[in-house]
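Many introductory courses stop at the sequence. We go one step further.
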Amino acid sequence: MIQLLILLHVFFVSFTDKPVDAGTQPALSPRAIEQRAKWHIALDELDYPVSAAYLDSLSRRVDTIHHTSRWMNGATCTMSEEMAAEVKQWDFVKDVQITRDDSPRGAFYMRRSLHAQQTTEQDVELVTERQLALYNLLPLHDLGYHGQGILITICDGGFTNANTLDCFRHELELGHFDFTDDVDDFYGYTGTHGTNCLSTISGLKEYEYYGSATRAQYYLMRSEENETESPKEMDNLVAALEKADSLGTNIFSVSLGYAYFDNDEWTLGYDDLDGRSTRASRAATIAARKGMLVCVAAGNEGDDDWRRISVPADADSILTVGAMTVDSVMGAFSSFGPSADGRIKPEVCAVGVQAALINPNNNVRRANGTSFATPLIAGLAATLWSALPDENAMQIRERIIRSANHYSSPDPDNHYGYGIPDAYAAYLGRTATLADTPATTRTTKYIQGNNIFIYRNGRTYSIYGILSE
């Protein structure tokens, strides 16, 4: 007997409309609804789930429904090409788009490698003082603000050992969600990247390391799949953004980006980086409109053929983050803009060249990538927001941008963006002027001429930690 192999692939099914049945409730937690009311953000169609009747019809015909999208009004499904062609003819279906081809791998496919991380042993005590001093966060820490009352979601590809490392206050983690099809345990060897990113926000090792917002609560979400690089991962990210919104997340930090895929036919062009052409970028913008501050890595392709930012770094109303050294020299690998429609990208920068972080073995290390600059900015935002709890996401974003050292430049640079934020100046509500920042018992950054200095415990140091005469 000959058995025919039916290949199943992943598709996104878009619906023509979204009928809302009587009694259907918005897909929002009490916290999310409370925050919408606080910041006068009205509920609308996007807050309601997709049609249960449409999903019921799909579930009886497709192999698997992976997740739905109330913002994109559709569902991610596994089915055959023949079934996809049939579903596309249904009256309530607008379009069916393949997002992952699960055919056997051949020469046509290419698995993209992650940008190499250069790591070294860490032998400098409290290296994070200089890392956080670059954007003048320490005065807010000294005032008692560490992100308390703020809810952050960190979305990434793997959080190995994040549930057991003693550098994290585990009572601050409220839960985790996996939007991938991988079967690995969430905290197993799914990758170290997410753990590294989390440490720059929440990591705490006495006399050695502390993150940028160590008292913020957080959720962990996984959207990056290990075996392939496909548009489905962007739809996983959409699902993560929607879940974060439903939970009442204040800040969403994602150090992922998409431009190249296994199948070259799916690869994006520069014209696609307009904040509207992909569902992931549209979702990031919607999240911002719904009250979240979304922080996205610019990308690590600044010194290769692509050079540009990736998706969803092109989204509007977010903070796209570039990478620099602790002495404010831009990383050559840091991707740059503008977006295809001419917006400044990245908006701001933080330490992403030899950034200090904690790895899944609980050791402090250094690594390169806009991936690590991004959660540093998310932590800055959380600390600032904890000091200004009555402001909304767009007001916090505006304060951060206006505080950056190139904000007043007549010609902002699309590699550097508006530059390095000044957390204390953002708190005070003015454009960055560091010279008059008051000295604290720990560390204060100030600028003199073209040089950056650290004032700590009555002494002045260069950004490299060398005591000044």
